[in-house]
Amino acid sequence: MRTRQLWSTCGILVATVALASCTKEQMEQLLQNTTQAMVSGGCPPGAGPVSPAPEFCLYVTELRVVNRNTEANVSATIVNRTGRRLYLTMVSQPFLTDSSGTKWANSNVTGIGGTPLSLEPNVDSQSAFSFNRSGSGQAPADLTFSMRGEVAILKVDSRGEVIPGRHQPTVRGFNFSGIRQGQQQPAQPAGASGPQGSTSLEQQSKEQKQLGTTPKNESANTGNTTPASSPGGSFVPLKAADFPERGQSLLNQQVELSGNFYSPILVNPKSDFSRGLISNPSVDPRRMDAKAVTVVFDLVDKQTISWMARNMCREVCKNVFVRGRLVTRKGHRQPVLEMTQISFESVAGAEAGGSAEAKLIAAQDRYGTAKAVLPSGAIPTEEGWKGWADRIPSTAPGYDAARGMWKSMIDHSDYQRQAAWDQERAIVRGPDRPADFETYYRGVRDTGLSDLFKPVHYQDRTTVWPRVALIVEERPQKGGIIADEYNRGGKTTSDRCWRLRAKVWTGPARSEDIAPFNWCLSEMRYNIGYAGVARWGMSPTSNMARIQANTGSKRTTGPNPPGTPLPQPLYMFQFSYDTIMVGNVLLDMGFSFHVPDGRVWLIDESVTMQQG
Protein backbone atom coordinates (compact mmCIF):
# COMPACT_ATOMS: atom_id res chain seq x y z
CA MET A 1 0.00 0.00 0.00
CA ARG A 2 1.48 3.33 -1.04
CA THR A 3 1.15 6.87 0.30
CA ARG A 4 -2.10 7.88 -1.36
CA GLN A 5 -3.69 4.57 -0.28
CA LEU A 6 -2.81 5.32 3.32
CA TRP A 7 -4.39 8.75 2.93
CA SER A 8 -7.58 7.12 1.69
CA THR A 9 -7.81 4.96 4.82
CA CYS A 10 -6.53 7.35 7.46
CA GLY A 11 -6.11 10.86 6.00
CA ILE A 12 -9.80 11.76 6.02
CA LEU A 13 -10.12 10.67 9.64
CA VAL A 14 -7.08 12.70 10.56
CA ALA A 15 -8.82 15.76 9.18
CA THR A 16 -11.67 15.07 11.63
CA VAL A 17 -11.55 14.24 15.32
CA ALA A 18 -11.61 10.45 14.81
CA LEU A 19 -7.87 10.07 15.30
CA ALA A 20 -8.39 6.89 17.26
CA SER A 21 -9.37 5.10 14.05
CA CYS A 22 -5.70 5.02 13.01
CA THR A 23 -3.17 3.07 15.02
CA LYS A 24 0.05 4.67 16.15
CA GLU A 25 2.01 2.57 13.64
CA GLN A 26 -0.25 3.68 10.77
CA MET A 27 0.15 7.34 11.74
CA GLU A 28 3.95 7.03 11.89
CA GLN A 29 3.99 5.23 8.53
CA LEU A 30 1.71 7.86 7.04
CA LEU A 31 3.90 10.75 8.17
CA GLN A 32 7.08 8.97 7.04
CA ASN A 33 5.73 8.17 3.58
CA THR A 34 4.27 11.66 3.17
CA THR A 35 7.64 13.25 3.96
CA GLN A 36 9.45 10.92 1.57
CA ALA A 37 6.91 11.55 -1.20
CA MET A 38 7.41 15.30 -0.81
CA VAL A 39 11.17 14.88 -1.11
CA SER A 40 10.98 12.55 -4.13
CA GLY A 41 8.37 14.65 -5.90
CA GLY A 42 5.73 11.95 -6.05
CA CYS A 43 7.99 8.97 -6.79
CA PRO A 44 7.09 5.99 -4.58
CA PRO A 45 9.77 5.62 -1.89
CA GLY A 46 11.64 2.34 -1.65
CA ALA A 47 10.14 1.05 -4.88
CA GLY A 48 13.37 -0.30 -6.35
CA PRO A 49 15.27 1.11 -9.36
CA VAL A 50 13.53 4.35 -10.27
CA SER A 51 14.00 6.84 -13.12
CA PRO A 52 12.19 10.10 -12.31
CA ALA A 53 11.21 12.73 -14.88
CA PRO A 54 9.39 16.03 -14.27
CA GLU A 55 6.13 14.52 -15.58
CA PHE A 56 6.27 10.90 -14.36
CA CYS A 57 8.18 8.23 -12.45
CA LEU A 58 9.09 4.94 -14.09
CA TYR A 59 10.33 2.25 -11.75
CA VAL A 60 11.17 -1.44 -12.05
CA THR A 61 9.11 -3.78 -9.89
CA GLU A 62 10.40 -7.17 -11.00
CA LEU A 63 12.92 -8.86 -13.29
CA ARG A 64 12.78 -12.58 -14.11
CA VAL A 65 15.23 -14.62 -16.23
CA VAL A 66 13.53 -17.63 -17.81
CA ASN A 67 13.86 -20.24 -20.58
CA ARG A 68 17.31 -21.54 -19.63
CA ASN A 69 18.57 -18.04 -18.90
CA THR A 70 18.02 -16.84 -22.48
CA GLU A 71 14.97 -14.59 -21.89
CA ALA A 72 14.43 -11.77 -19.40
CA ASN A 73 11.07 -10.26 -18.47
CA VAL A 74 10.96 -6.87 -16.76
CA SER A 75 7.85 -5.50 -15.06
CA ALA A 76 7.60 -1.75 -14.49
CA THR A 77 5.13 0.80 -13.14
CA ILE A 78 4.61 4.37 -14.36
CA VAL A 79 3.30 7.04 -11.96
CA ASN A 80 1.82 10.27 -13.32
CA ARG A 81 3.37 13.15 -11.34
CA THR A 82 1.19 15.86 -12.89
CA GLY A 83 -2.41 16.89 -12.30
CA ARG A 84 -3.39 16.22 -15.91
CA ARG A 85 -3.65 13.34 -18.31
CA LEU A 86 -0.46 12.22 -20.07
CA TYR A 87 -0.05 10.30 -23.31
CA LEU A 88 3.20 8.33 -23.38
CA THR A 89 4.84 6.10 -25.97
CA MET A 90 8.24 4.47 -26.51
CA VAL A 91 10.56 6.42 -28.81
CA SER A 92 12.71 3.39 -29.68
CA GLN A 93 13.31 -0.17 -28.58
CA PRO A 94 14.71 -0.30 -25.02
CA PHE A 95 17.72 -2.50 -24.36
CA LEU A 96 19.02 -4.51 -21.44
CA THR A 97 22.67 -5.15 -20.55
CA ASP A 98 23.89 -7.59 -17.90
CA SER A 99 26.94 -7.30 -15.66
CA SER A 100 28.93 -9.62 -17.95
CA GLY A 101 28.61 -7.02 -20.75
CA THR A 102 26.12 -9.04 -22.83
CA LYS A 103 23.28 -7.21 -24.58
CA TRP A 104 19.70 -8.54 -24.39
CA ALA A 105 17.68 -7.46 -27.44
CA ASN A 106 14.12 -6.25 -26.90
CA SER A 107 11.48 -8.59 -28.34
CA ASN A 108 8.23 -7.15 -26.98
CA VAL A 109 6.76 -4.23 -25.03
CA THR A 110 3.28 -4.17 -23.52
CA GLY A 111 1.63 -1.21 -21.85
CA ILE A 112 3.79 1.67 -23.04
CA GLY A 113 4.47 0.43 -26.56
CA GLY A 114 3.87 1.86 -30.02
CA THR A 115 0.25 2.82 -29.20
CA PRO A 116 0.07 5.92 -26.96
CA LEU A 117 -0.60 5.05 -23.32
CA SER A 118 -3.18 7.27 -21.60
CA LEU A 119 -2.06 7.90 -18.02
CA GLU A 120 -4.57 9.61 -15.73
CA PRO A 121 -3.49 11.71 -12.72
CA ASN A 122 -2.95 9.68 -9.54
CA VAL A 123 -3.38 6.40 -11.44
CA ASP A 124 -0.53 3.95 -11.95
CA SER A 125 -0.01 1.99 -15.16
CA GLN A 126 1.78 -1.33 -15.55
CA SER A 127 4.17 -2.12 -18.42
CA ALA A 128 6.22 -5.18 -19.32
CA PHE A 129 9.38 -5.59 -21.39
CA SER A 130 10.71 -8.85 -22.85
CA PHE A 131 14.33 -9.36 -23.91
CA ASN A 132 16.33 -12.15 -25.57
CA ARG A 133 19.98 -12.74 -24.77
CA SER A 134 22.43 -12.21 -27.63
CA GLY A 135 25.11 -14.78 -28.34
CA SER A 136 25.30 -18.49 -27.63
CA GLY A 137 25.29 -20.41 -24.36
CA GLN A 138 23.51 -19.70 -21.12
CA ALA A 139 23.82 -16.58 -19.03
CA PRO A 140 25.87 -16.92 -15.83
CA ALA A 141 24.03 -16.92 -12.51
CA ASP A 142 23.68 -13.97 -10.14
CA LEU A 143 23.79 -11.25 -12.79
CA THR A 144 22.79 -7.64 -12.31
CA PHE A 145 21.19 -5.70 -15.15
CA SER A 146 20.91 -2.19 -16.55
CA MET A 147 18.08 -1.01 -18.78
CA ARG A 148 17.87 2.09 -20.99
CA GLY A 149 15.33 3.64 -23.30
CA GLU A 150 13.37 6.79 -24.17
CA VAL A 151 9.76 7.75 -23.56
CA ALA A 152 7.94 10.46 -25.56
CA ILE A 153 5.24 12.69 -24.03
CA LEU A 154 2.79 13.59 -26.79
CA LYS A 155 1.34 17.05 -27.23
CA VAL A 156 -2.25 17.51 -26.01
CA ASP A 157 -4.89 20.22 -26.46
CA SER A 158 -6.87 22.10 -23.79
CA ARG A 159 -9.23 19.12 -23.43
CA GLY A 160 -6.33 16.78 -22.69
CA GLU A 161 -6.56 14.96 -26.03
CA VAL A 162 -3.65 14.21 -28.34
CA ILE A 163 -3.21 16.88 -31.02
CA PRO A 164 -3.48 15.21 -34.45
CA GLY A 165 -0.69 15.60 -36.95
CA ARG A 166 3.06 15.44 -36.56
CA HIS A 167 4.23 17.47 -33.56
CA GLN A 168 7.59 17.27 -31.86
CA PRO A 169 7.06 15.31 -28.59
CA THR A 170 8.91 15.85 -25.33
CA VAL A 171 11.41 13.01 -24.95
CA ARG A 172 12.53 11.71 -21.56
CA GLY A 173 15.21 9.07 -21.19
CA PHE A 174 15.20 6.39 -18.53
CA ASN A 175 18.28 4.60 -17.30
CA PHE A 176 18.38 1.89 -14.63
CA SER A 177 21.29 -0.07 -13.26
CA GLY A 178 21.82 -2.56 -10.46
CA ILE A 179 18.59 -4.45 -11.21
CA ARG A 180 18.68 -7.96 -9.74
CA GLN A 181 16.55 -10.97 -10.50
CA GLY A 182 13.34 -11.19 -8.49
CA GLN A 183 11.04 -8.56 -7.00
CA GLN A 184 12.55 -5.12 -6.46
CA GLN A 185 11.23 -4.55 -2.91
CA PRO A 186 8.19 -2.27 -3.37
CA ALA A 187 7.27 -0.02 -0.46
CA GLN A 188 4.91 -1.52 2.11
CA PRO A 189 3.19 -0.10 5.21
CA ALA A 190 4.74 -1.05 8.54
CA GLY A 191 4.04 -4.63 9.53
CA ALA A 192 2.80 -5.59 6.06
CA SER A 193 4.36 -8.20 3.81
CA GLY A 194 4.07 -8.05 0.04
CA PRO A 195 3.99 -10.95 -2.39
CA GLN A 196 7.01 -13.10 -3.17
CA GLY A 197 8.94 -12.18 -0.06
CA SER A 198 8.99 -8.36 -0.39
CA THR A 199 9.86 -6.60 2.85
CA SER A 200 8.37 -3.61 4.58
CA LEU A 201 10.17 -0.34 5.28
CA GLU A 202 10.40 -1.29 8.94
CA GLN A 203 12.03 -4.62 8.05
CA GLN A 204 14.43 -2.89 5.67
CA SER A 205 15.44 -0.50 8.44
CA LYS A 206 16.13 -3.42 10.80
CA GLU A 207 18.23 -5.16 8.15
CA GLN A 208 20.28 -1.99 7.66
CA LYS A 209 20.92 -1.74 11.39
CA GLN A 210 22.03 -5.38 11.49
CA LEU A 211 24.47 -4.69 8.67
CA GLY A 212 25.83 -1.71 10.58
CA THR A 213 24.53 0.87 8.12
CA THR A 214 22.36 3.90 8.70
CA PRO A 215 18.97 3.94 6.94
CA LYS A 216 19.11 6.36 4.04
CA ASN A 217 16.48 8.62 2.58
CA GLU A 218 14.31 6.35 0.41
CA SER A 219 13.96 9.07 -2.19
CA ALA A 220 17.63 8.72 -3.16
CA ASN A 221 18.40 7.99 -6.79
CA THR A 222 18.55 4.20 -6.45
CA GLY A 223 19.73 2.23 -9.44
CA ASN A 224 20.02 5.20 -11.80
CA THR A 225 23.32 5.61 -13.63
CA THR A 226 22.80 9.37 -13.49
CA PRO A 227 23.79 10.12 -9.89
CA ALA A 228 22.41 13.09 -8.00
CA SER A 229 25.96 14.19 -7.41
CA SER A 230 28.73 13.31 -9.82
CA PRO A 231 32.38 14.46 -9.71
CA GLY A 232 32.31 18.21 -9.97
CA GLY A 233 28.57 18.36 -9.23
CA SER A 234 25.48 17.16 -11.10
CA PHE A 235 25.40 17.96 -14.82
CA VAL A 236 22.57 19.12 -17.03
CA PRO A 237 22.69 17.31 -20.40
CA LEU A 238 22.87 19.74 -23.32
CA LYS A 239 23.38 19.04 -27.02
CA ALA A 240 25.63 21.47 -28.87
CA ALA A 241 22.82 21.96 -31.41
CA ASP A 242 20.53 23.19 -28.58
CA PHE A 243 23.05 25.62 -27.13
CA PRO A 244 21.79 28.76 -28.98
CA GLU A 245 18.33 28.22 -27.51
CA ARG A 246 19.21 27.00 -24.00
CA GLY A 247 22.69 28.37 -23.31
CA GLN A 248 21.67 31.61 -21.58
CA SER A 249 19.17 29.85 -19.30
CA LEU A 250 21.92 27.50 -18.04
CA LEU A 251 24.41 30.24 -17.21
CA ASN A 252 26.54 29.42 -14.13
CA GLN A 253 25.29 25.82 -14.10
CA GLN A 254 27.21 22.58 -14.51
CA VAL A 255 26.40 21.15 -17.95
CA GLU A 256 27.42 18.16 -20.04
CA LEU A 257 27.77 19.39 -23.62
CA SER A 258 27.72 16.70 -26.34
CA GLY A 259 28.91 16.96 -29.93
CA ASN A 260 32.11 17.09 -32.00
CA PHE A 261 35.04 18.56 -30.08
CA TYR A 262 38.21 20.24 -31.34
CA SER A 263 41.18 21.19 -29.18
CA PRO A 264 44.35 23.01 -30.26
CA ILE A 265 47.56 21.04 -30.71
CA LEU A 266 48.99 22.53 -27.52
CA VAL A 267 46.52 22.93 -24.65
CA ASN A 268 47.77 25.56 -22.22
CA PRO A 269 45.44 26.19 -19.25
CA LYS A 270 47.29 29.44 -18.48
CA SER A 271 46.83 30.95 -21.92
CA ASP A 272 43.76 32.97 -22.91
CA PHE A 273 44.42 32.00 -26.53
CA SER A 274 44.23 28.24 -25.89
CA ARG A 275 40.59 27.45 -26.60
CA GLY A 276 38.55 24.57 -27.94
CA LEU A 277 35.31 24.30 -29.89
CA ILE A 278 32.35 21.92 -29.72
CA SER A 279 29.57 21.73 -32.30
CA ASN A 280 26.67 19.67 -33.61
CA PRO A 281 27.79 16.02 -34.26
CA SER A 282 27.12 16.44 -37.97
CA VAL A 283 29.37 19.53 -38.29
CA ASP A 284 33.11 20.09 -38.06
CA PRO A 285 33.52 22.67 -35.25
CA ARG A 286 36.38 24.35 -37.17
CA ARG A 287 34.06 25.50 -39.93
CA MET A 288 33.25 29.20 -39.93
CA ASP A 289 29.50 28.54 -40.04
CA ALA A 290 29.55 25.76 -37.42
CA LYS A 291 27.99 27.87 -34.61
CA ALA A 292 30.40 26.16 -32.23
CA VAL A 293 30.53 26.71 -28.46
CA THR A 294 33.84 28.02 -27.12
CA VAL A 295 35.58 25.83 -24.52
CA VAL A 296 38.24 27.25 -22.18
CA PHE A 297 40.84 25.16 -20.35
CA ASP A 298 41.47 27.13 -17.14
CA LEU A 299 40.42 24.20 -14.93
CA VAL A 300 41.61 21.13 -16.85
CA ASP A 301 44.23 18.80 -15.33
CA LYS A 302 47.07 16.84 -16.92
CA GLN A 303 44.98 13.66 -17.20
CA THR A 304 42.33 15.49 -19.23
CA ILE A 305 44.95 17.04 -21.52
CA SER A 306 46.50 13.59 -22.00
CA TRP A 307 43.06 12.15 -22.89
CA MET A 308 42.54 14.80 -25.57
CA ALA A 309 45.98 14.12 -27.07
CA ARG A 310 45.54 10.33 -26.99
CA ASN A 311 42.19 10.54 -28.75
CA MET A 312 43.43 12.98 -31.38
CA CYS A 313 41.08 15.83 -30.48
CA ARG A 314 43.35 18.14 -32.45
CA GLU A 315 41.76 16.46 -35.50
CA VAL A 316 38.25 16.54 -33.93
CA CYS A 317 36.90 14.01 -31.42
CA LYS A 318 33.47 12.94 -32.61
CA ASN A 319 30.50 12.29 -30.31
CA VAL A 320 32.14 13.23 -27.02
CA PHE A 321 30.76 14.63 -23.76
CA VAL A 322 32.50 17.74 -22.40
CA ARG A 323 31.57 18.76 -18.85
CA GLY A 324 32.03 22.00 -16.98
CA ARG A 325 30.32 25.27 -16.03
CA LEU A 326 28.79 27.79 -18.45
CA VAL A 327 30.15 31.25 -17.65
CA THR A 328 30.44 34.67 -19.26
CA ARG A 329 33.82 35.94 -20.47
CA LYS A 330 35.02 39.25 -21.84
CA GLY A 331 35.08 39.32 -25.61
CA HIS A 332 32.39 36.61 -25.93
CA ARG A 333 28.76 37.44 -26.60
CA GLN A 334 27.69 33.89 -25.76
CA PRO A 335 28.53 31.89 -22.61
CA VAL A 336 31.65 29.75 -22.76
CA LEU A 337 32.25 26.37 -21.14
CA GLU A 338 34.85 26.15 -18.37
CA MET A 339 35.86 22.56 -19.08
CA THR A 340 36.69 20.14 -16.25
CA GLN A 341 36.02 16.67 -17.75
CA ILE A 342 35.71 14.88 -21.08
CA SER A 343 34.76 11.30 -22.04
CA PHE A 344 33.00 9.21 -24.65
CA GLU A 345 30.41 8.18 -22.03
CA SER A 346 27.74 10.38 -20.52
CA VAL A 347 27.31 10.83 -16.75
CA ALA A 348 24.03 12.69 -17.24
CA GLY A 349 22.03 9.87 -18.81
CA ALA A 350 22.49 10.86 -22.47
CA GLU A 351 22.92 8.23 -25.17
CA ALA A 352 26.43 7.59 -26.38
CA GLY A 353 27.47 8.58 -29.89
CA GLY A 354 26.39 6.12 -32.55
CA SER A 355 23.24 5.02 -30.69
CA ALA A 356 20.90 5.74 -33.61
CA GLU A 357 23.06 3.69 -35.98
CA ALA A 358 23.31 0.87 -33.44
CA LYS A 359 19.52 0.67 -33.13
CA LEU A 360 19.14 0.27 -36.89
CA ILE A 361 21.77 -2.47 -36.94
CA ALA A 362 20.06 -4.28 -34.05
CA ALA A 363 16.66 -4.07 -35.77
CA GLN A 364 18.08 -5.46 -39.02
CA ASP A 365 19.79 -8.28 -37.13
CA ARG A 366 16.59 -9.22 -35.27
CA TYR A 367 14.74 -9.39 -38.59
CA GLY A 368 17.32 -11.82 -39.95
CA THR A 369 16.96 -14.26 -37.04
CA ALA A 370 13.92 -15.69 -38.83
CA LYS A 371 16.48 -17.96 -40.51
CA ALA A 372 18.25 -20.52 -38.33
CA VAL A 373 21.96 -21.28 -38.34
CA LEU A 374 23.08 -24.69 -39.53
CA PRO A 375 23.48 -27.44 -36.92
CA SER A 376 27.05 -27.93 -35.75
CA GLY A 377 29.05 -29.82 -38.37
CA ALA A 378 26.31 -29.66 -41.01
CA ILE A 379 26.70 -28.51 -44.61
CA PRO A 380 23.93 -27.52 -47.03
CA THR A 381 22.81 -29.78 -49.80
CA GLU A 382 23.24 -28.76 -53.44
CA GLU A 383 19.48 -28.26 -53.63
CA GLY A 384 19.67 -26.08 -50.53
CA TRP A 385 22.09 -23.57 -52.06
CA LYS A 386 20.41 -23.83 -55.47
CA GLY A 387 23.56 -25.02 -57.24
CA TRP A 388 24.18 -21.68 -58.96
CA ALA A 389 27.80 -22.51 -59.87
CA ASP A 390 29.37 -25.39 -61.77
CA ARG A 391 32.00 -26.56 -59.27
CA ILE A 392 34.16 -28.28 -61.92
CA PRO A 393 36.83 -25.88 -63.24
CA SER A 394 37.74 -25.65 -66.92
CA THR A 395 40.85 -27.46 -68.11
CA ALA A 396 43.60 -26.33 -70.47
CA PRO A 397 42.68 -26.46 -74.17
CA GLY A 398 44.22 -29.39 -75.98
CA TYR A 399 45.33 -29.88 -79.58
CA ASP A 400 42.55 -29.50 -82.14
CA ALA A 401 43.38 -30.63 -85.64
CA ALA A 402 40.53 -28.55 -87.05
CA ARG A 403 42.19 -25.37 -85.79
CA GLY A 404 45.67 -26.31 -86.82
CA MET A 405 48.90 -26.53 -84.88
CA TRP A 406 49.65 -22.79 -84.77
CA LYS A 407 46.20 -21.76 -83.52
CA SER A 408 46.20 -24.53 -80.90
CA MET A 409 49.60 -23.36 -79.60
CA ILE A 410 48.35 -19.76 -79.33
CA ASP A 411 45.22 -20.87 -77.41
CA HIS A 412 47.31 -22.95 -75.03
CA SER A 413 49.77 -20.07 -74.50
CA ASP A 414 46.92 -17.65 -73.74
CA TYR A 415 45.49 -20.11 -71.26
CA GLN A 416 48.82 -20.53 -69.47
CA ARG A 417 49.32 -16.75 -69.32
CA GLN A 418 45.83 -16.26 -67.86
CA ALA A 419 46.36 -19.09 -65.36
CA ALA A 420 49.62 -17.48 -64.14
CA TRP A 421 47.86 -14.13 -63.78
CA ASP A 422 45.02 -15.78 -61.86
CA GLN A 423 47.52 -17.60 -59.66
CA GLU A 424 49.30 -14.35 -58.77
CA ARG A 425 46.10 -12.56 -57.81
CA ALA A 426 44.35 -15.62 -56.35
CA ILE A 427 41.47 -15.42 -58.82
CA VAL A 428 39.18 -18.38 -59.26
CA ARG A 429 37.34 -18.19 -62.57
CA GLY A 430 33.68 -19.05 -62.70
CA PRO A 431 30.15 -17.67 -63.16
CA ASP A 432 29.16 -14.47 -61.38
CA ARG A 433 26.97 -14.98 -58.34
CA PRO A 434 23.36 -13.83 -58.90
CA ALA A 435 22.52 -10.48 -57.31
CA ASP A 436 19.49 -11.99 -55.54
CA PHE A 437 21.41 -15.00 -54.24
CA GLU A 438 20.09 -16.21 -50.88
CA THR A 439 20.66 -19.11 -48.51
CA TYR A 440 18.02 -21.00 -46.57
CA TYR A 441 20.24 -20.76 -43.47
CA ARG A 442 21.22 -17.50 -41.71
CA GLY A 443 24.12 -16.00 -43.62
CA VAL A 444 25.94 -12.69 -43.39
CA ARG A 445 23.35 -11.04 -45.68
CA ASP A 446 20.69 -11.86 -43.07
CA THR A 447 22.46 -9.95 -40.27
CA GLY A 448 23.04 -6.37 -39.23
CA LEU A 449 26.42 -6.62 -41.00
CA SER A 450 24.87 -6.69 -44.48
CA ASP A 451 26.22 -3.73 -46.51
CA LEU A 452 27.18 -2.03 -43.22
CA PHE A 453 30.14 -0.16 -44.76
CA LYS A 454 28.53 0.91 -48.04
CA PRO A 455 27.36 4.33 -46.75
CA VAL A 456 30.58 4.85 -44.74
CA HIS A 457 33.29 3.57 -47.08
CA TYR A 458 36.94 4.37 -46.43
CA GLN A 459 37.96 7.96 -47.26
CA ASP A 460 41.22 8.58 -45.43
CA ARG A 461 42.85 8.03 -42.05
CA THR A 462 40.08 9.94 -40.27
CA THR A 463 37.54 7.20 -41.19
CA VAL A 464 37.39 5.20 -37.95
CA TRP A 465 33.71 4.17 -37.42
CA PRO A 466 31.92 1.81 -37.47
CA ARG A 467 34.18 -1.04 -36.38
CA VAL A 468 33.48 -4.77 -36.41
CA ALA A 469 35.11 -7.62 -34.51
CA LEU A 470 34.38 -10.90 -36.34
CA ILE A 471 34.60 -13.98 -34.11
CA VAL A 472 34.98 -17.42 -35.70
CA GLU A 473 33.12 -19.94 -33.53
CA GLU A 474 33.38 -23.05 -35.71
CA ARG A 475 35.42 -23.99 -38.76
CA PRO A 476 35.68 -27.17 -40.86
CA GLN A 477 38.25 -29.68 -39.71
CA LYS A 478 39.78 -30.01 -43.17
CA GLY A 479 41.70 -27.00 -44.40
CA GLY A 480 42.96 -26.80 -47.89
CA ILE A 481 44.26 -24.64 -50.70
CA ILE A 482 41.67 -24.05 -53.36
CA ALA A 483 44.36 -23.62 -56.03
CA ASP A 484 45.19 -27.30 -55.68
CA GLU A 485 41.81 -28.05 -57.21
CA TYR A 486 41.09 -25.21 -59.61
CA ASN A 487 44.49 -24.54 -61.14
CA ARG A 488 45.46 -28.18 -61.56
CA GLY A 489 42.30 -29.18 -63.40
CA GLY A 490 40.88 -31.25 -60.55
CA LYS A 491 37.33 -31.51 -59.27
CA THR A 492 36.38 -29.37 -56.26
CA THR A 493 35.92 -30.65 -52.75
CA SER A 494 32.56 -30.98 -51.06
CA ASP A 495 31.05 -27.90 -49.43
CA ARG A 496 32.49 -26.56 -46.17
CA CYS A 497 30.89 -24.26 -43.59
CA TRP A 498 31.98 -21.84 -40.87
CA ARG A 499 29.97 -20.30 -38.01
CA LEU A 500 30.71 -16.73 -36.87
CA ARG A 501 29.32 -14.00 -34.68
CA ALA A 502 30.30 -10.32 -34.42
CA LYS A 503 30.34 -7.18 -32.32
CA VAL A 504 29.68 -3.87 -34.10
CA TRP A 505 30.95 -0.61 -32.59
CA THR A 506 29.15 2.48 -33.91
CA GLY A 507 31.03 4.70 -31.46
CA PRO A 508 33.66 4.37 -28.71
CA ALA A 509 30.98 3.67 -26.09
CA ARG A 510 28.18 2.06 -28.16
CA SER A 511 28.07 -1.45 -29.58
CA GLU A 512 25.66 -4.16 -30.73
CA ASP A 513 26.16 -7.92 -30.73
CA ILE A 514 25.43 -9.77 -33.98
CA ALA A 515 23.90 -13.21 -33.47
CA PRO A 516 25.72 -16.23 -34.96
CA PHE A 517 25.55 -16.86 -38.70
CA ASN A 518 27.09 -19.25 -41.25
CA TRP A 519 29.26 -18.89 -44.32
CA CYS A 520 29.70 -21.86 -46.66
CA LEU A 521 32.06 -22.39 -49.57
CA SER A 522 29.11 -22.74 -51.95
CA GLU A 523 28.47 -19.00 -51.41
CA MET A 524 31.89 -18.07 -52.82
CA ARG A 525 32.18 -15.28 -55.36
CA TYR A 526 34.28 -16.12 -58.42
CA ASN A 527 36.52 -13.76 -60.40
CA ILE A 528 37.71 -11.95 -57.23
CA GLY A 529 41.39 -11.34 -56.44
CA TYR A 530 41.62 -12.94 -52.98
CA ALA A 531 45.35 -12.18 -52.73
CA GLY A 532 44.26 -8.74 -51.51
CA VAL A 533 42.68 -10.30 -48.40
CA ALA A 534 45.98 -11.72 -47.20
CA ARG A 535 47.87 -8.47 -47.92
CA TRP A 536 45.21 -6.45 -46.07
CA GLY A 537 45.24 -8.84 -43.13
CA MET A 538 49.03 -8.72 -42.64
CA SER A 539 49.44 -4.93 -42.96
CA PRO A 540 49.06 -2.29 -40.22
CA THR A 541 46.21 0.00 -41.22
CA SER A 542 46.60 3.77 -41.47
CA ASN A 543 43.27 4.87 -40.01
CA MET A 544 43.66 2.71 -36.88
CA ALA A 545 47.27 3.83 -36.40
CA ARG A 546 45.86 7.36 -36.10
CA ILE A 547 44.07 6.63 -32.82
CA GLN A 548 47.28 5.34 -31.17
CA ALA A 549 45.25 2.82 -29.21
CA ASN A 550 45.47 -0.60 -30.88
CA THR A 551 45.82 -3.66 -28.69
CA GLY A 552 48.94 -5.01 -30.44
CA SER A 553 49.05 -8.80 -30.61
CA LYS A 554 46.15 -9.16 -28.16
CA ARG A 555 42.88 -9.63 -30.04
CA THR A 556 39.79 -8.35 -28.19
CA THR A 557 36.21 -7.58 -29.23
CA GLY A 558 36.92 -3.84 -29.10
CA PRO A 559 36.42 -1.03 -29.35
CA ASN A 560 40.14 -0.80 -30.17
CA PRO A 561 41.51 -3.13 -32.90
CA PRO A 562 44.67 -5.26 -32.79
CA GLY A 563 47.86 -4.35 -34.65
CA THR A 564 46.85 -6.26 -37.82
CA PRO A 565 43.35 -7.27 -38.97
CA LEU A 566 43.95 -11.05 -39.37
CA PRO A 567 45.71 -13.49 -37.04
CA GLN A 568 48.68 -15.43 -38.36
CA PRO A 569 49.34 -17.85 -39.94
CA LEU A 570 45.97 -19.45 -40.65
CA TYR A 571 44.59 -16.54 -42.70
CA MET A 572 47.80 -15.56 -44.49
CA PHE A 573 47.59 -17.98 -47.45
CA GLN A 574 45.92 -16.25 -50.35
CA PHE A 575 44.24 -19.37 -51.78
CA SER A 576 43.26 -21.00 -48.46
CA TYR A 577 39.60 -21.68 -47.77
CA ASP A 578 39.79 -19.62 -44.56
CA THR A 579 41.14 -16.55 -46.37
CA ILE A 580 38.46 -16.89 -49.07
CA MET A 581 35.81 -17.10 -46.32
CA VAL A 582 37.06 -13.81 -44.82
CA GLY A 583 37.10 -12.10 -48.21
CA ASN A 584 33.53 -13.08 -49.00
CA VAL A 585 32.21 -11.99 -45.60
CA LEU A 586 33.94 -8.63 -46.03
CA LEU A 587 32.42 -8.17 -49.50
CA ASP A 588 28.92 -8.92 -48.19
CA MET A 589 29.53 -6.28 -45.51
CA GLY A 590 30.30 -3.70 -48.22
CA PHE A 591 33.92 -3.54 -46.99
CA SER A 592 36.90 -3.12 -49.30
CA PHE A 593 40.11 -5.02 -48.49
CA HIS A 594 42.01 -3.14 -51.22
CA VAL A 595 42.56 -0.06 -48.99
CA PRO A 596 44.41 0.26 -45.64
CA ASP A 597 41.19 0.14 -43.60
CA GLY A 598 41.45 -1.44 -40.13
CA ARG A 599 37.84 -1.09 -39.03
CA VAL A 600 37.33 -4.87 -39.25
CA TRP A 601 39.41 -7.52 -37.53
CA LEU A 602 39.14 -11.26 -36.88
CA ILE A 603 39.27 -13.26 -33.65
CA ASP A 604 39.58 -17.03 -34.04
CA GLU A 605 37.92 -18.92 -31.15
CA SER A 606 36.95 -21.76 -33.43
CA VAL A 607 36.34 -25.39 -32.63
CA THR A 608 37.15 -27.54 -35.66
CA MET A 609 34.32 -29.83 -36.74
CA GLN A 610 34.22 -32.82 -39.09
CA GLN A 611 31.85 -31.88 -41.92
CA GLY A 612 30.48 -33.64 -44.92
Describe this structure in words.
The chain has 612 residues and is of the alpha+beta class. The chain is 19% helix and 26% strand. It has eleven helices and 21 strands. It has helices spanning 3-15, 24-40, 201-210, 243-246, 302-310, 355-368, 405-425, 483-486, 531-538, 542-546, 577-588, and strands at 50-52, 56-66, 71-80, 86-90, 95-98, 103-110, 117-119, 124-133, 144-153, 170-180, 182-183, 236-239, 254-262, 275-279, 293-296, 317-327, 336-343, 467-476, 497-507, 510-520, 600-609. The strands form three sheets. Strands 1, 2, 3, 4, 5, 6, 7, 8, 9, 10 and 11 form an eleven-stranded antiparallel β-sheet that branches. A five-stranded mixed β-barrel has the order 13-14-15-17-16. Strands 20-19-18-21 form a four-stranded mixed β-sheet. It is globular and about 95 Å long. The N and C termini lie far apart (64 Å). The relative contact order is 0.08. The model is unreliable at 1-22, 30-41 and 186-233 (pLDDT under 50).
Please supply descriptive tags for the structure shown above:
612 residues; alpha+beta; globular
Topology, please?
Blueprint: H1 3-15, H2 24-40, E1 50-52, E2 56-66, E3 71-80, E4 86-90, E5 95-98, E6 103-110, E7 117-119, E8 124-133, E9 144-153, E10 170-180, E11 182-183, H3 201-210, E12 236-239, H4 243-246, E13 254-262, E14 275-279, E15 293-296, H5 302-310, E16 317-327, E17 336-343, H6 355-368, H7 405-425, E18 467-476, H8 483-486, E19 497-507, E20 510-520, H9 531-538, H10 542-546, H11 577-588, E21 600-609
Parallel strand pairs: 12-13, 15-17, 18-21
Antiparallel strand pairs: 1-2, 2-3, 2-11, 3-8, 4-7, 4-9, 5-6, 5-9, 6-8, 9-10, 13-14, 13-16, 14-15, 16-17, 18-19, 19-20
